[in-house]
UniProtKB/TrEMBL annotation:
Residues in the signal sequence: none
InterPro entries reported in the protein's UniProt record: Aldolase_TIM, BKACE
Phylogenetic classification of the source organism: Bacteria, Pseudomonadati, Pseudomonadota, Betaproteobacteria, Burkholderiales
The species this protein was found in: Achromobacter aloeverae
Entry protein name: 3-keto-5-aminohexanoate cleavage protein
Cofactors that this protein relies on: Zn(2+)
Length: 313
């Protein structure tokens, strides 16, 4: 186990690219909404803000750097949180599109999916009685026949141009056991150095299921591959599995991620009104467990980040 005094890093994934406007009226779609939700989440205790962009006209995911520029600098000016820009984007974006803003911003952190995979929530389309925008239904149903692509060559390219080229460190998103082995391969190749931040993801169709046993298996496999002191472990649970799994992760010495990208709910059948509501709830749970929450600067130290002054944001 890591030292008992280690604090827990709360990451908040603000809007993502999976959920659509018809699924919740509280999902941030415009730059103003994304900025507001991110700033409030930081004030509630999130040390890291994981950010995607959406077209303000209809809420569809976009890689457009101009849209990112409409909210990322505002978040930087209003908080001291670590800004973490997606390199995943969506299954419909090319690698160049996904890297367009990260390469411009040179942020402290970026997310990095550690493999190609089926990634879908297409069964959710059956539960939506009415769609707000015409693009949503074919977008969700179309996931059934799409693959999120990150080949070894893609991952290596991202590690070189963003990691080596920009000094950006990564939230290594691992949706399956094999993704840990993919990460270990890049450690062996010398393209990844510690401290390593592993985000284990449970409950996405196409990845590991939300069974608690899978969390234990991912943790023990990461221990075997990297050594307990060679990485930082974090967990997100999709949908209704969010709070049980992140609580389990914290008890096991890990860190946590919440936010409307990962779950639209705050409790059974009750939509969360904001990302900050989820952050505040998980913070209460952590503190009731006598765990301390890391500040942004403490998270920077724990993860070996270059500091906000070294970015181009």
């Amino acid at each position: 186990m890591k030292k008992s005094q280690d604090k827990v890093i709360i990451s908040c994934a603000v809007t993502g690219s999976v959920h659509t406007p018809s699924m919740s009226p509280h999902l941030a779609l415009t730059p103003d909404q994304i900025a507001e939700q991110a700033i409030d989440a930081a004030r509630a205790g999130a040390a890291i803000l994981h950010l995607h962009a959406r077209d303000p006209r209809d809420g569809r995911p976009t890689p457009d750097p101009a849209v990112f520029d409409a909210f990322v600098p505002r978040i930087r000016d209003a908080t001291d949180a670590v800004i973490n820009i997606t390199t995943g984007g969506s299954t419909r974006m090319s690698l160049d599109e996904r890297l367009a803003y990260p390469l411009r911003a040179k942020p402290e952190m970026c997310s990095l999916n550690m493999g190609s995979m089926n990634f879908s929530i297409h069964p959710a389309a059956r539960r939506i009685p009415e769609w707000r925008y015409d693009w949503e239904k074919p977008y969700i149903e179309g996931m059934e026949d799409l693959i999120f692509r990150n080949t070894f060559k893609d991952i290596g390219h991202i590690l070189k141009v963003l990691g080596e080229g920009c000094g950006t460190r990564f939230e290594f998103e691992c949706y399956d056991m094999g993704h840990l082995y993919n990460l270990a391969h890049f450690v062996d190749e010398g393209l990844v150095q510690g401290p390593i931040f592993i985000q284990s993801i449970f409950g996405i169709l196409g990845g590991l299921g939300p069974d608690p046993e899978n969390l234990v298996a991912m943790r023990t496999t990461a221990d075997r591959l990297f050594g307990r002191d060679g990485y930082r472990f974090s967990v997100l649970g999709a949908g209704r599995h969010q709070l049980p799994l992140v609580t389990m992760a914290a008890i096991m010495g890990g860190n946590v991620r919440v936010g409307l990208e990962d779950s639209l709910y705050i409790g059974k059948g009750k939509l969360a009104v904001s990302c900050a509501e989820q952050v505040a709830k998980v913070r209460r749970i952590l503190e009731e467990l006598s765990l301390e929450v890391a500040t942004p600067d403490e998270a920077r130290a724990m993860l070996g980040l270059k500091g906000r002054e070294a970015t181009a944001i």
